[in-house]
Write a structure and sequence with these properties.
By secondary structure, this protein is α+β, with helices and mostly antiparallel strands. Helix content is about 40%, strand content about 20%. The chain has three helices and four strands, in the order αββαββα. The structure holds ligand H2B. Ligand H2B binds next to loops.
């Protein structure tokens, strides 16, 4: 099982990722899209890399907003796997996303 990160390690990872916020023992990014179809299309893009990594985001969709919450459930907190998946997700965000 992946090792839980220490608080300084989490702080250092977050310092490099301005779009992610620490919420309790998770990291969260909120994204806004043009509409529902675009939001769902984005979520669909996450399926393959999440499956490939064996690491899955918690997702909440509200019309054109997608809230992505990452934590390692098996470890009960944040591990390197969460920040690796955050980087994959960041790479999928359309640059024109408002
Ligand atoms: N995703 C996340 N976010 N955390 C986990 O602990 C986790 C997962 N565990 N996806 C994986 C699946 C595990 O249960 C399977 C057996 O690989």
């Amino acid at each position: 099982m992946a090792k839980l990160l220490t608080t300084p390690e989490v702080t250092a990872h977050l310092a490099q990722r301005q779009d992610w916020q620490l919420v309790e023992n998770t990291i969260v990014r909120e994204l806004k899209f043009k509409g529902f179809v675009e939001a769902i299309a984005f979520v669909n893009q996450l399926v393959e890399p999440a499956e490939a990594a064996g690491h899955h985001p918690d997702l909440a969709i509200s019309y054109n907003r997608v809230t992505v919450t990452l934590s390692t459930h098996d470890a009960g907190g944040l591990t390197a796997n969460d920040f690796a998946l955050a980087d994959v997700i960041d790479g999928l965000v359309p640059s024109q996303s408002p």
